[in-house]
Amino acid sequence: MTDFTLHNLDTAPEASKPLLENSQKNFGRIPGLHAVMSESPKTFEAYQMLHKLFTESSFDADELTVVWQSINVEHECHYCVPAHTGIAKMMKVDDAITEALRNETPLPTPRLEALRDFTLTMVRSRGNATDAEVQAFLDAGFTREQVLEVVLGIAQKVMSNYINHLADTPVDQVMQKFAWSKASSEAA
Q1: Using CA atoms, how far apart are residues 38 and 29, in angstroms rounded to an integer?
Q2: Same-domain status, 40 and 80
Q3: Are 13 and 64 in a shared domain?
Q4: Together in a domain, 148 and 68
Q5: Which of 27, 54, 147, 179 is the most exposed place for a label (fewest CB within 10 A)?
Q6: For residues 6, 70, 151 and 49, what is the CA-based torsion angle, rounded to 10 degrees?
Q7: For residues 20 and 9, is the Cβ–Cβ distance under 8 A?
Q8: Is residue 149 included in any domain, yes or no?
Q9: One domain for residues 35 and 82
Q10: Tens of pLDDT along 70-99?
Q11: C-alpha count within 13 angstroms, C-beta hemisphere, residue 68
Q12: How far apart, in whole angstroms, are the C-alpha atoms of residue 170 and residue 136?
């Protein structure tokens, strides 16, 4: 495996330093993912922009969590599932939603289940959802805008999940209590 540096404000490329300062300000620390991403200032900047835009989308905290965690679990991201478990707690998302996502069990409402189903359809089909699959999402009370916002969430998570796989990013100490591995992976 290729070794990636976990940069800090002293070692990061100059163009990444303001982005790391932003992370420090927003999180009170530099998350490991950001430390890795800072190797490529443009990648890091794009990720931060996608994150900002997705959190400003029309989805509420529960729905943001469903999109993020559905993708994280599908991609088996050892770093992002614990991180978004902690983020969900900070966003005051019901633990029942988080546990259902982490364990791939039914969500508490049909609407959230429809969001997870559509998100996974988009990930698994690489965006080739059928008209019937899109219509089922719309019939669950979502909008065409939200169809596209799911794609935005996927773009953000593909960046983080893939980078964490490449770098084997260590789970941040504060999130280690939320460690996770996919149930099917544990039996293998």
Answers
A1: 14
A2: no
A3: no
A4: yes
A5: 179
A6: -30
A7: yes
A8: yes
A9: no
A10: 999 999 999 999 999 999 999 999 999 999
A11: 27
A12: 38
Residue 85 lies in a domain: yes
Instruction: Name, in order, each residue with C-beta under 8 angstroms of 178's C-beta and a sequence gap of 6 or more.
Output: 81, 82, 83, 85, 86
- The DSSP output letter for 16 is G
Q: Which of 33, 56, 79 is the last residue of a domain?
A: 56
- Structure token pair of residue 2: 């290729």
Answer yes or no: do 142 and 106 share one domain.
Answer: yes
For residue range 128-183, list pLDDT tens digits in order.
999 999 999 999 999 999 999 999 999 999 999 999 999 999 999 999 999 999 88
What range does the domain containing 26 cover?
7-56
Q: At CA 7, angle to CA 69 and CA 167, rounded to 5? A: 50
CA angle, residues 108, 114, 118, in degrees to nearest 5: 140
In which element (H, E) is residue 23 found? helix 17-27
The encoded tokens of residue 42 equal 């443009």
Residues 162 and 76 in one domain: yes
Q: Is residue 130 part of a domain?
A: yes
Residue 188 resides in a domain: no
Q: How far apart (Å, rounded) are the C-alpha atoms in residues 7 and 80?
A: 18
Distance between CA atoms of residues 65 and 58, nearest Å:
13
DSSP for 105-122, written as a single string? ---SSHHHHHHHHHHHHH
Same domain, 38 and 75: no
Amino acid letter at 128? N
